[in-house]
Amino acid sequence: MMYRKLLVVVAACAAGFQAYAQSAPRFRAERVPTISPSCATSPGDALDINNAGAVIGQRCIDARNFAFIWSDGNIRLLPQDTQGNAQSLRLNDRFDAIMQVASATGERRHLFVRNDGATVQIDPLPGDFDLSLISLNNVQQVLGHSVGSAGGLPSGGVPFIWHRGRARALSALPDTFSLTASNLNDFGIAIGTSSNSQDNRFMDRRAVLWVFDTVMPLPLPDGAIGSTGIDINNRGQAVFSAHFDDDGTEPRPRTQVYLWDLGRSRALPLLPIGPDDVGLTAGAADISNHGQVVGVTVHREPFSEIPVRRATLWRDGAVHDLQDLLVDENGEPVTNLSLRAALAINDVGQILVREFIDPLEPPQYFVLTPVSATD
């Protein structure tokens, strides 16, 4: 009965969306200026991209981290008080944002920043003492995690959805020890992970959806020992990580990305590795409303303990190493970048990635924009 209700809801969410099937495009990369001249050795971060191609991040200015929005080649600092040190940033298509501002003494404020520059303080659930902000959607709902005892869970914290000054705690499965939310769509459906143990074991984790006031576990794929919820789009498609216990030779279980679509789960393919490589695992970070998924693939080469990380795109049932899809203005392959992780994707197909030119230097961030074959 629960799944029937869930399928009805996500099917309604999917109405109006059409199939989006094309071959993988080529991309041109544009650097996001996260490193400021006043803090040349301090790394900044780019954290999210909206459907207008705007990126939100933090960059160091005079030894403090300030939140910024980078759009059309220009940087705009977000309003925040003199404490500085902004983090936990997300951006929606209305150019609303969320952020945490921390002082040197450890005091933290959690802010919803409207597109007109006004800020609204978000507080923990009644009886709790702290919180963290996770995500927001295009109807100005904010997903957070309240810390304390008000949620009634042994872990002392509970996820919640905040909207227009009011917060609603998300419900838990029976015998839950801890809950972690990871994202929500524009219909207020959230995804996350439930655990029934404090030992942080993969076998105790289960990906869950919150559909209004109901929490529902996603089914485990055959052979999986646990799962972790990652993201859900407006079509009701969810991506989650399934964990598999292989032969015990690896310190962590093998992980593979799965797409859940109207009650059915399917594994997304893995990037190929060398015959002697080990430790292959894949993780998703984001899913667009067209069902494109981005994330990272990790493995180790023979006789090496240093992991090889590759920014990854799953599109139309195929998997792509984003490094192989980069071209310059002449359409020639780009070989001087090393894309380590894909962080977010918008509905235009633009992808926010992190890369290292030099392992000893701070990471840099790029927006990859699809280009047509005739450009």
What would you note in describing this structure?
It is a single chain. The chain has 375 residues and is mostly beta strands. A four-stranded antiparallel beta sheet has the order 1-28-27-26, with no helix packed on it. It has a four-stranded antiparallel beta sheet with strand order 2-3-4-5, with no helix packed on it. The relative contact order is 0.13.
Unreliable residue runs: 14-21
Strand order of the largest sheet: 1-28-27-26
First-to-last CA distance: 51 Å
Element order: H for helix, E for strand: HEEEEEEEEEEEEEEEEEEEEEEEEEEEE
Shape: globular
Number of helices: 1
Provide the structure class: mainly beta
- Please state the average pLDDT score: 87
What structural keywords apply?
single chain, 375 residues, mainly beta, four-stranded antiparallel beta sheet, 47% strand, globular
Summarize the structure.
The protein has a domain of 106 residues. Helix content is 3%, strand content 47%.
Topology of this structure?
Layout: H1 2-14, E1 26-32, E2 45-49, E3 55-61, E4 64-71, E5 74-77, E6 86-91, E7 97-102, E8 108-113, E9 119-121, E10 130-136, E11 142-147, E12 157-163, E13 166-169, E14 178-184, E15 190-195, E16 205-211, E17 214-217, E18 226-232, E19 238-244, E20 254-261, E21 264-267, E22 278-287, E23 293-300, E24 307-315, E25 318-321, E26 339-345, E27 351-355, E28 364-371
Antiparallel strand pairs: 1-28, 2-3, 3-4, 4-5, 6-7, 7-8, 8-9, 10-11, 11-12, 12-13, 14-15, 15-16, 16-17, 18-19, 19-20, 20-21, 22-23, 23-24, 24-25, 26-27, 27-28
